[in-house]
Specification:
heterodimer, A: 560 residues, alpha+beta, Rossmann fold, Dna Ligase, domain 1, 5-stranded mixed beta sheet, 4-stranded antiparallel beta sheet, 22 helices, 22 strands, B: 280 residues, Immunoglobulin-like, C8orf32 fold, 6-stranded antiparallel beta sheet, 5-stranded antiparallel beta sheet, 40% strand
Chain lengths: 560, 280
């Protein structure tokens, strides 16, 4: 966190404390306060079967949300709106935007956090680590001798027909074996409240900057909420990332030079690229800043050429190396694949990871977990029908009107068809598309994503959410950032949460275990603690407090 | 008995204005197998570069190099001495039922699929059906090669490096690359795993030991009917003592002898010259 951003960030918070009364003074003895939740569980809401994360079906509050509910419920609608505006202003001031169909707009942060209990999180964390390990083993296998195919567990066709299977990554084995330096595993919660994996993101999962910025902003606007509960910190993500990237370099490099490679300012995630580079204290570069000579990668600097050992690239495979992929790409670095093959640079995430997060390959991850780890999946998949298998395709074609049809290569929610919402003509078109390209489509039952109270106008109403936790693999341990990005579908009844489809986000709270610290330490990050000082057990146990936040709290105290 | 042949393959680019930066990969190095034994092989460039070698996904030796000094011409020379083998024989160790089995279709999936070069065409589908009728797989391979050779007219300059099988079929003319792609379409249509082979052919049978002749960069096919075996559809002959193979793949794109990128003026390919000397 640099002084520059802190100066910018503080402004909205200060504005608020000057103009608006604090919630404590306002909420005390307010009779109409609970009006916020009026009609929340009304029976005629869309998707009434969905699992609500705050309320049981009988209207009582679930345990993890109790403290939060008690804090919010007495708040007056006007105060909530004032704080909500403060959140929006904070984001606008920092320039955190994303592009929706070509138009830059702020990424709406909802004021009600999403809460995950310590025990739920501990299971999710183990499930994510398991998945990342299985997928690492799969990628290592696929780009070597594909033993899993020889053993008849997966068909070869599954791999060779995948658009993101990169033959030029064959036998390209990184020094510490890690290909998935960063993973984003998308989870949803079904009608029963069971978390399921919806998809894996092993290429360039983005969104972690929102996790950190959401927390910072929430802590400024709602410091009082954080004093009631122990919420696990998310601010040390970049420390873990830098550690994993440095650990990825060849052992002979004493002090590896890491850079972040961005496509440039016009990329929708440029803010994230610059934030990560700044927090890690490494250079943010574009393709033209780097070049290869005799299989070594150099950065052009004002002081001459400088060797680069690890490239955390946020550029798609196809644009990374014009010698191997699209020859017209000017975003990448010619020759970088051979430099990596020669062991002179590490590309993170590795080229060709897309074969592991293909939506058809996804359906085989449970088999991979069994094959490579001899374990049962801790987090189940969403039931998925594969159009490329004759039997399952027939079932899809029969039940098209009740299924969600997804293109295998799609991302950002584009190309997804909700059978129940389709006209007969659209269904007919989908049938043809599936018959023409069975490998290109999967189908899933409509999962009624769980709901969390979300502020719409002056009330809190149920809106559907998903969760993208981020995992960082340093080769010895897989670190999972507590929480992740909760995306929320803002339109009423909508089940599409992608930011590219008009979604918003929520701060995601993982509650620290109330038991002794030993319990936490068992799940903890063995080995990282010594090298990454921020991640010690103390930081994990502590409240989400920084120097900044304490100052705000003191101001708050005076106002009250 | 096979021959010992020296192959000197020269290729490269000419630029209209000096080029400051270029990155290239060449596939000019033959490999040893049961058909041939590679005695020596090297790749050199002018201007000189520091090259890097690796084996690609298809098992081909790739030589990669980059050049950062201004130059207007880049010359690449691949020199190899290879002992070649006797004529290849068709293998008859499979039948149509086995070729249609899930196991074979999955194992050789990449050599059964269609590509931009090995493109599907309704007319070729019908022709493939006709060839297949009443024949064993190996005879169907020979028949497909014969049909392509009989139907097409060999004429250089009529097709280019990016011509697809369908385009060549429609013109009725082409070179060895087109003959190979067309044959692959027919074989894959019949369900026979088939791959593209790039290499060299010493053009004359009667060449004496010590004689150097102007040879050709050549292409042919291999089919899998129980095991892999090759045939030269352009000349209608088995793969024998005059053939030296370098690379196999799904089509030309997997084996292109020289590809690269550069920054600077427009490039023009230098004339490719292949000199072949029978040493023994």
């Amino acid at each position: 966190m640099t002084p520059v951003s802190r100066a910018v960030d503080r402004r909205p918070a200060r504005t608020r404390t000057e103009k608006e009364p604090g919630p404590e003074s306002n909420g005390a003895g307010h009779e109409g306060g609970s009006a916020l939740f009026d009609g929340y569980l009304e029976p005629d809401r869309p998707n009434p079967d969905a699992f609500d994360e705050m309320f049981n079906a009988d209207g009582s509050v679930r345990a993890p949300y109790r403290q939060l509910h008690d804090a919010i419920a007495p708040t007056a609608a006007a105060d909530l709106s004032a704080r909500s505006e403060a959140l929006d202003r904070a984001y606008m001031d920092q320039g955190i935007t994303f592009s929706l169909s070509g138009k830059e707009r702020p990424f709406p942060l909802d004021i009600v956090p999403r809460v995950i209990s310590a025990s739920e999180w501990s299971r999710l964390q183990r499930g994510i680590v398991q998945r990342v390990k299985a997928l690492e083993a799969f990628l290592a296998d696929v780009y070597n001798d594909a033993q899993i195919v020889r053993d008849g567990v997966l068909p070869r066709r599954l791999i060779t027909s995948c658009e993101h299977f990169k033959r030029s990554a064959h036998l390209l084995n990184p020094p510490n074996g890690v290909r998935i330096h960063v993973a984003g595993i998308d989870l949803v919660r079904d009608q029963e409240g069971t978390f399921r994996v919806l998809e894996d993101n092993l290429r360039n999962p983005s969104g972690v900057s929102y996790v950190m910025e959401n927390r910072r902003t929430m802590a400024r606007v709602f410091p009082d909420l954080f004093t009631r509960q122990r919420v696990r910190a998310v601010g040390d993500y970049s420390t873990h990332l830098l550690h994993a990237l440095r650990a990825a370099a060849a052992p002979n490099v004493a002090d590896p030079n890491v850079v972040v490679l961005t496509p440039g300012v016009y990329n929708s995630a440029y803010f994230e690229h610059s934030l990560l580079a700044r927090q890690m204290g490494v250079e943010l570069v574009e393709g033209r800043d780097l070049f290869c000579r005799d299989n070594l990668v150099y950065m052009r600097t004002t002081e001459g050429e400088q060797r680069v050992d690890v490239v955390y690239r946020r550029i798609d495979d196809d644009f990374l190396d014009p010698l191997q992929f699209k020859p017209t790409s000017v975003l990448g670095v010619a020759g970088i694949m051979n430099a990596a093959r020669a062991g002179n640079v590490v590309i993170a995430n590795a080229v060709g990871n897309g074969v592991g997060d293909d939506k058809l390959v996804y359906t085989y991850v449970p088999q991979m977990i069994k094959y490579y780890l001899d374990e049962k999946p801790i987090i189940p998949n969403v039931t998925t029908l594969r159009c490329w298998l004759d039997g399952e395709r027939e079932e899809v074609l029969d039940r098209l009107h009740e299924l969600v049809i997804k293109p295998v290569e799609g991302s950002g929610g584009y190309g997804i068809l909700f059978g129940p919402n389709c006209s007969a003509k659209e269904l007919q078109k989908a049938r043809k598309a599936i018959r023409d390209d069975p490998r290109g489509w999967i189908a899933q039952p409509v999962v009624q994503l769980s709901t969390v109270p979300t502020k719409v106008d002056d009330r809190l109403v149920p809106r559907h959410v998903d969760l993208r936790p981020f995992a960082v693999n340093d080769g010895e341990d897989v670190f999972v950032l507590p929480g992740g990005l909760t995306r929320v579908a803002l339109p009423k009844g909508s089940l599409v949460v992608n930011s590219s489809q008009g979604g918003g986000s929520k701060d995601t709270w993982v509650l620290a275990a109330s038991r002794a610290p030993e319990a936490e330490r068992e799940l903890g990050e063995r080995g990282i603690a010594s090298k990454a000082p921020v991640s010690g057990p103390a930081a994990e146990q502590g409240r989400e407090l920084t120097v900044d936040q304490q100052q705000q709290q003191q101001q708050q105290g005076r106002d009250a | 008995m096979g021959w010992r042949i020296r192959v000197v393959h020269e290729t490269g680019f000419k630029y209209s204005s000096p080029v400051l930066e270029t990155y290239n990969e060449v596939r000019l190095t033959p490999r040893s197998d049961q058909h041939q034994n590679v005695i020596v092989s090297r790749v050199e460039t002018v201007p000189a570069t520091r090259s890097y070698r690796y084996e690609d996904y298809w098992g081909t030796q790739v030589t990669a190099f980059d050049l950062h000094a201004p130059h207007t011409e880049l010359l690449v020379t691949g020199t190899s001495v290879v002992e070649t083998g006797d004529d290849s024989e068709p293998l008859r160790e499979t039948d149509w039922a086995e070729l249609a089995s899930e196991h074979i279709r999955d194992r050789y999936t990449e050599m059964l699929e269609f590509t931009d070069y090995v493109s599907r065409d309704p007319e070729l589908v019908r022709i493939a059906k006709g060839i297949r009728k009443d024949k064993e797989p190996a005879d169907a391979v020979l028949a497909a090669c014969e049909l392509v050779r009989d139907t097409m007219t060999y004429q250089s300059g009529t097709t280019g490096v990016s011509t697809s099988a369908t385009e060549a079929w429609q013109t009725g003319k082409g070179v060895c690359q087109d003959y190979a792609h067309l044959t692959l379409v027919l074989l894959r249509e019949m369900g026979i795993p088939a791959r593209y082979v790039s290499g060299y052919l010493l053009p004359r049978k009667d060449v004496a030991v010590g004689d150097t002749v102007s040879g050709q960069s050549h292409a042919w096919i291999e089919a899998r009917t129980g095991g892999w075996w090759g045939f030269d559809p352009t000349n209608g002959i088995p793969i024998g003592q005059r053939h030296v193979w370098v690379a196999v793949g799904r089509d030309y794109a997997d084996v292109s002898p020289l590809k690269g990128i550069y920054s600077g003026g427009t490039a023009e390919a230098l004339d490719v010259a292949v000199d072949m000397t029978r040493l023994a």
